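## tool: complex_structure
## caller: assistant
## args:
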Amino acid sequence: MGGLQKKKYERGSATNYITRNKARKKLQLSLADFRRLCILKGIYPHEPKHKKKVNKGSTAPRTFYLFKDIRFLLHEPIVRKFREYKVFVRKLRKAYGKAEWTGVERLRDNKPGYKLDHIIKERYPTFIDALRDIDDALSMCFLFSTFARTGKCHVQTITLCRRLTVEWMNYVVTSRSLRKVFLSIKGIYYQAEVLGQLITWLVPYQFAHDHPTDVDYRVMATFTEMYTTLFGFINFRLYQTLNLVYPPKLDSKAESELKAEHEEDYAMDSESYLEKLSALSASLARVVATAEEEENQLDLFPTEGEDQENMQAREKEQKEQEAQKRLFEGLKFFLNREVPRESLAFILRCFGAEVSWDKSLCIGGTYEVTDETITHQIVDRPDMDKQYINRYYIQPQWVFDSVNAQMRLPVEDYFLGTTLPPHLSPFVEEKDGDYVPPEKLKLMALQRGEKPEEEEEDDEEEEEEDEEEDDVDDEELTEEKNLKKMEGTRAQGKTLAVKVTPGKVKPWETGSVGNKVRLEQEEKAEEKRLAIMMMKKKEKYLYDKIMFGKKRTTREVSSLRCAPNGCKATHFKFEWPSQSPDLNLILRCCGRT
Amino acid sequence: MAAVKRLKRVAALQPGFISFKWSAESDDLNSGRRKRVNKNKKKNWNKHSDIQDVEEFLDDVRLQERTTGLCFLCLLEVQERKKGKKSKSRPLRIDLILQHDSLVPPPKDVLAYQQPNAKKLRRIAENAEKLAAMGVLPRRQKLLLNRRPATKTSKAKTAANNFPDRPYYDLWGGEGKFETADPYYLEQTGKSCVKRPEKLNVKPSILPAVEVIAPGGSYNPDFFSHQALLLEAHEVEVMRERAELRIERQLAVKQEDTATEETVFEELVEGLVEEEEEEEEEEEDVSIRGGLQQEKKTEKERKRERADKIKSQQKQAARVFTDKKQQLFQLRSIQATLKRREQRTRERVAQRKANQEAEKSMPRRLGRLKFQAQDLEIQLSDEIPGSLRTLKPEGSVLKDRFKSMQKRNMIEPRERAKFKRRHKVKYVEKRAFREIT
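## result:
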């Protein structure tokens, strides 16, 4: 014993944390400035594990920061700028009060400003780091660019956001990197693959704003300030990778085409270029003029065995992607005035289509409705007066569904005035055994290359498919049983000749190709059986359990899918818009209480 | 009005007119005794200054103006100005005195006209002319020409970050400016930034930045996924209702707490009957305790106690010994318990790990308020639009982004600061109202 008495809260977690107010005082900033600084530098509050210890015995809820983080903040040059700004405001107010107008002018000229470039560089040391974190920036900029210029935030911020988003959309169009689109009740979700990174963002519908009161606009504006800086640098780099001119310029050819007489009617001179860019109907100018995008071929290396298989798979995947990129190539669209122009133009241009719209709708339309070469006209009204014979009149959902299905869907379901099939979310990935909506099954069949025979037989077709699926399940079950039997005999020490279970010939494997496929399948089954045989008792038990669970889910799903009384799930879709069915009723219908 | 004032002033200045002072003096003469008036108030001025004659004069002027068209006054003014000019052009007396008035001219200073080294300078100039004709510049001029144009030192103004046409550059492209220099120098001069700790680049939550809405949130959803979303929203609503009910239940007055006749009577009678009994009991207690303390153990008793104690200790030791012996035969069960215990710890570890994993994606408690998720965006079955044109968007993207940031622990949940009045507002009935009521 002996020595100095240990005092409480002078070591350990109590010294690792600092409360917000103390941190604020240490930095000599107001709360608003402190909050701004934290957002800009990416320093977030932290919840300590032992709150009472950290809070020096008190249990009052407080906001804590890590002490080291705050110490790091002390070195930030922007802190000084904040203080300078504070002084500037004070001086300005004084000058105003004394009515010294020359002084006011002089002060205004010397208004202190700050740059965020070094912070961006510090937070994202490499370009890929920044690209990974761009989701937030995209969503925020798209959101701010749709704000009305009513003084909720600076008009300049809105304009900058608009500029950056237009640049981004132009990049995605040029690089053809859009992958998925989802029209939700909240907004439109997009997903693009940029330099191998999947980037998701949300775009609000136009004119959909009510400004919620419980959102701190100042915080949002600060985030936007940081994100616009980040976003601009990323855009620059992305344009560089494609050899495009930054800030974007329209192709000289396109520019001359777009020269309209009524240009002044749309926007001021300063704005009209941005408007033209945002129309997305023309391609961008490149630094080095290239005639055509060269196909980027996968490097071929001599490989063996598994690697080769991987290689083939990769090659196939790439081919598919290339095909997807050219989804709408060669088609000519015309957008009616009631459809959301920007999103449709964006998507269609992303997949290589030509788009135009009415002259009065927006700047940048390249051809008229009367053009005979138009293949599709996108319409969202119950009826059209004047129709051309040589084009399809389709509803906008066709475009979105086609993009998600990675193929041009049959247009019949989307004709003018027909009830649309449901718009499925492309972001859901069903595991095997989950319930898959019948529409998706149909779509998958389409993707495999099957053709629905006739419009009238559509329902039957669906039923068949369902049966088919069931058959497949049954097959698997029988296989399992066989396997078990065999394993039993193995256990007794008898050898058994390899038996081929007679598999059903599936419709897509008829002909000479079918034989090959079947052989492959048999091989796979054999491998699986061997693997099961090699299992330990414990693992076997687990495996059985898993299989049981799977079977149960499939049973449930099948009961869901082929609803009782012979009524198919698709029939519901005609019912629900008219009245809202009770959930219990539906569940009862499906035979589950 | 202003014109009239000016005229009044002018009239007072004219030499041919009677001044205020004069009128005042005449007043004094008339009255015999001087009347003292404070002239620091406009009112007094108005009252006590006689402006009768001024008015008359002005009337006269107006009349003249009307009849002749030219103002008599203006003429006067012009004349005066001419006089003033003349007087100014005359030289000052002192200058006249200092003027040279001798008839003999002063001697000429020859030296003032001579130049030192004139010959040399002339030759140099001639030489320079010759060289210039040949195109050779003198050294000084050459140096001037060779000098670099002064760089503009005006402070580069930093444009605001939200300047719409702000330029961007390749931030990640080139090498840093200061990387070649001495790191110690940079650090001391504050030219290098402090390195960001690696730990700060870890995101506070593993949730994705943009969470995609469930498939039931499609504008034209599949039936079952829509029902699933509705069910989810329904459950949320049920939970909320339950919480409200719980609070209400806790607040409700219990049936037992309400006063009946019996309880009222009991309360009235309380303390009248039972007091005496209690006192007696207390007295007894005290006597018993006192008795025990006073009793003293005998030697015999102590001995017996000691022996008992030793005996019990021995017994205990023997018991422990046999137990240990017996444990040899319990090995299997002991092993089983050990196994069970280990199993339990393993399970707990796994559970704890799972909890920690789950916590990574959960919103933390960062301030006074807890995170509250926003309401689920749903559209009821009868609200689902048939087409994209008739879609009515649900919820607000702005709020969604804001809540997402809170959920990812980037900002602490806050509520809007309420306006608090420092002092009470005193109610004063306005006079206008008071008259009516």
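## assistant note: Chain A touches chain B through 106 residues (CB under 8 Å). Chain A has a mean pLDDT of 80. Handing back to user.
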